[in-house]
Design brief:
By secondary structure, the chain is mainly alpha-helical. It is 78% helix and 0% strand.
Length: 478
């Protein structure tokens, strides 16, 4: 056992990816190795073993490097795959959104097209009647806008006298201007006596009475026509609504457009010489199996190549037709004018009937208003009689509230600040001031009202006591 050699223990490969490190020999193992003698053959074997170890370690290192590179490549591939999947998802979502938008747009376009078709059909609605517009009221409105009325206002006595005296003063003072003459007439009018003014004043009063009567009549007529117009508007509005609903239902059923109606009595426009020629040639060309598009080309070329003698019969025919058309048109226009005049007469008669109806309506309205007024007056009289019976002059009156006390003073100040103010605006301003009052000012007015109420209560007690005393005395006397 002189040349025994300790065999090298092969390194174990672990389950992990990294190669296990070679174990460093412990002290005991080292001693054992040193203690054993080494033979020459064993020395040679020992030299071969480390060379193999080096080769194996190099292979392991290269293999580990390749593994690491592959792992890195796989990780990069995974990351790229994830990115591409995310991008594909985003693109799919964008495509879906675009498809939805396109579908929505298509639906909206279809809806718009259907609505437009409905509107086009509704444009064709032609009612058999229109809302009544009374001509007299329109004319009066136009006259009011222009600033002129049917009858002029009567001129006062001074102007009537001035018209008579103007020429005399102008003859006496030919160089005088308008202003100078007017001042002279004004000074002279002051010296005119009452007897001289009487005839002019009489003319003025007579004209004024006539003017007022005309205005009253006009106002009465306008009120009556307004009533009638309101009634007619209500009737026609209901009839138009019914017609429109019927037309709408028919338009929804029928998709076709209605053509414009032409007047069948209106004479047709005559054909020219060229068209008369084409009508003659059309039958012959149709017999030759010519296309309808080729016919006008052929006829136009033939018409250009024709002489004046060949064209003359067609031109004479066209001239006769034109003269006949002119005569027929004159007769048609005369007929239309007669119809228009007849229609105007009917309208005037209808206006007269409308005025009569309007006046009757106004009379009915006035009767009802008079009845309401009489009933109100009778009720007020009854109330006054009751109050007169129950009222006692010695009974103390209730005091005013804080708002009424405030409004009395506020009215005085507002009337002084704004002279000629209307009652409605005055009341509105007083109520606004009362709302804008501070709490201190309002407490002041409330305090005054409460003081007045306390005084009223005391007076009431004394009044009731006196009533009771008089009642007792009357019972004793009885």
């Amino acid at each position: 056992m002189g040349g025994t050699v300790v065999a090298e223990v092969p390194t174990k490969r672990g389950r992990g990816r990294r190669a296990l490190k070679e174990k460093t020999p412990s002290t005991n193992d080292a001693n054992i190795i040193i203690a054993t003698p080494i033979s020459p053959s064993s020395e040679k074997a020992a030299q071969v073993v480390p060379s193999k170890k080096k080769q194996d370690s190099k292979k392991q290192q290269s293999f580990e490097k390749e593994l690491l590179e592959m792992q890195e490549m796989l990780q990069q591939m995974r990351l790229e795959k994830e990115k591409t999947e995310e991008l594909l998802k985003v693109k799919d979502e964008a495509l879906k959104l675009k498809e939805e938008e396109l579908e929505n747009r298509g639906r909206e376009q279809e809806k718009l097209q259907t609505e437009l078709k409905k509107l086009q059909k509704l444009k064709e609605f032609k009612p058999t009647m229109n809302l009544p517009v009374l001509k007299d009221n329109e004319e009066k409105k136009d006259k009011k806008k222009k600033g002129c009325s049917e009858k002029k206002r009567p001129s006062p006595p001074y102007i009537l006298w001035m018209k008579d005296q103007w020429n005399e003063i102008k003859k006496a003072n030919p160089e005088a201007e308008f202003k100078e003459i007017s001042t002279m007439l004004g000074a002279k009018w002051k010296t005119v006596s009452a007897e001289e003014k009487k005839p002019y004043e009489g003319i003025y009063h007579a004209e004024k009475e006539a003017y007022l009567q005309v205005i009253a009549k006009e106002k009465r007529e306008t009120e009556a026509m307004r009533l009638l117009e309101d009634e007619q508007k209500q009737r026609t509005a209901m009839e138009l609504l019914e017609q429109y609903m019927q037309f709408k239902q028919e338009a929804e059923k029928d998709g076709k457009k209605n053509k414009k109606e032409k007047d069948p009595l209106k004479p047709k426009h005559p054909m020219s010489a060229y068209f008369l020629f084409t009508n003659d040639r059309r039958a012959a060309l149709a017999a030759e199996n010519k296309n309808f598009l080729e016919v006008p080309k052929i006829t136009s070329e033939e018409w250009k190549n024709m002489t004046e003698e060949q064209k003359r019969p067609y031109e004479e025919m066209a001239k006769k037709n034109k003269e006949q058309y002119a005569l027929e048109m004159e007769a048609y226009k005369q007929k239309k004018d007669e119809e228009a005049a007849h229609f105007m007469k009917e309208e005037e008669e209808q206006m007269k009937l409308q005025k009569q109806e309007a006046l009757q309506l106004l009379k009915k309205k006035e009767k009802t208003e008079n009845i309401i007024k009489k009933t109100k007056q009778n009720r007020q009289k009854k109330k006054q009689n009751k109050d007169d019976k129950n009222s006692d002059p010695n009974r103390p009156k209730k005091p005013a509230s804080s708002f009424i006390l405030f409004s009395k003073e506020a009215r005085k100040t507002l009337q002084e600040e704004r002279p000629g103010i209307s009652t409605s605006t005055l009341n509105a301003l007083v109520s606004l001031k009362w709302k804008e009052l501070s709490e201190e000012d309002r407490q002041f007015w409330n305090g005054q009202a409460s003081k007045a109420m306390d005084a009223y209560k005391k007076e009431l007690e004394e009044y009731n006591k006196s009533l009771a005393a008089t009642a007792c005395q009357e019972q004793k006397t009885e």
